[in-house]
Write a structure and sequence with these properties.
One of its GO terms (molecular function) is metal ion binding. It comes from Catellatospora methionotrophica. This is Mycothiol-dependent maleylpyruvate isomerase metal-binding domain-containing protein. It is a single chain. By secondary structure, the protein is an all-alpha fold. The chain contains 6 helices and no strands. The chain has one domain. Helix 5 packs parallel to helix 6. The protein is globular and about 45 Å long. The relative contact order is 0.18.
Length: 201
């Protein structure tokens, strides 16, 4: 059983932010309309959603305003520099979580569960950033940005929050995965994503 502390979760969040930042930086000029593992959303919409979610985590803690657009209804049109807007969101998220004590048990989050311990709250923000980094990377023909160690920790977080969120459409139904599957494959399957996804899947 993977054990995560508040400090571990902040490290995980920083890694997830880096993965998302890198995935976005590698989007080719003709890649913004490509399909993604998020059914019905293209690359632009996934980025809008991921950006909005990080803004929401920051706002819940008290840093910055709430998203101006519903992250679950992304328009597919970004007004401004997408990478710059993402950077603002990631900075706000990191700044917000840096204000929270490592042993905090009641951290506000933009989730129906209400306040959560820091390791779950920061882990949830990390899970969101990391999985959407994966969505964008594979949609644009890049390798998975998820490491085995990070995937194991993200799965521990996912097991704490995902089931109630499936009812809201935030995550697809769990897919089967072999008992000996790699950590990344297991995580993606739990989140309803086939690790071998391609635009033709």
């Amino acid at each position: 059983m993977t054990t995560i502390t508040g400090t571990n979760a902040i490290t995980l969040l920083n890694a997830a932010h880096t993965a998302l930042r890198t995935a976005v930086a590698q989007i080719p000029a003709d890649g913004w309309d490509l399909p993604t593992p998020c059914e019905h959303w293209n690359v632009t919409q996934v980025l809008q959603h991921a950006t909005g979610d990080q803004i929401a985590y920051a706002a819940a803690i008290g840093v910055g305003p709430w998203p101006s657009e519903d992250p679950f209804q992304p328009s597919g049109s970004i007004d401004g520099d997408a990478a710059a807007l993402l950077e603002q969101a990631l900075t706000a998220s990191a700044t917000a979580f840096a204000t929270v004590d490592a042993d905090a048990e009641q951290v506000p989050v933009p989730l129906p569960q209400g306040p959560l311990p820091l390791w779950i709250a920061a882990g949830a923000a990390a899970l969101d950033a990391a999985v959407h980094a994966w969505d964008i990377a594979v949609a644009t023909g890049r390798p998975s940005p998820l490491t085995a160690q990070d995937a194991e920790q993200l799965l521990a977080v996912a097991k704490q929050i995902v089931e109630p969120l499936r009812a809201y459409g935030a995550y697809a139904p769990e897919l089967p995965a072999p008992a000996d599957a790699a950590p990344t494959t297991t995580l993606l399957a739990y989140l309803g994503r086939p690790a071998a996804w391609t635009p033709r899947t």
